[in-house]
Amino acid sequence: MPDNLHREVELQIPFHDVDMMEVVWHGHYCKYFEIARCALLESIDYDYRQMRDSGYFWPIIDLRLRFIKPARFGQRILVRATLTEWENRLKIDYLIRDSASGSRLCKGHSVQVAVAVQTGEMRFESPPVLFGKLGIAKP
């Protein structure tokens, strides 16, 4: 199994992400997931432009979040993205923790599938280019 299947980013909660109670609005957690997902994809040399250039779009078809504790204005958080499935789809698990204490704030996952740019058809298995980026043989 490749050892490059996770990335963690540290963020500080900005004022424009919070409500009047200084708690992060729930929709912004998706943005934090996206920041970590992009770092993960860049680390395997297969970011969104490279995906498109390889002939595939990878739309998200499922996104789930589970809130544990609220994140607040000014708080530093760690967002970890871990690639857990890649044979037929990209499934990425996420964990958001408080940077200082390590306490869990939110967890979730996203699922993406390969769609051929030329035909718009969804693939039922991941294309060979993904396996090459991961440095593993296609099953």
Automatic annotation (TrEMBL):
Signal peptide: none annotated. GO terms for molecular function: fatty acyl-CoA hydrolase activity. InterPro entries: 4-hydroxybenzoyl-CoA_TE, HotDog_dom_sf. CDD domains: 4HBT. Gene3D superfamilies: Hotdog Thioesterase. It holds the Pfam family 4HBT_2. It comes from the Bacteria. Keywords: Hydrolase. Belongs to the 4-hydroxybenzoyl-CoA thioesterase family. This is 4-hydroxybenzoyl-CoA thioesterase. It comes from Methylomonas koyamae.
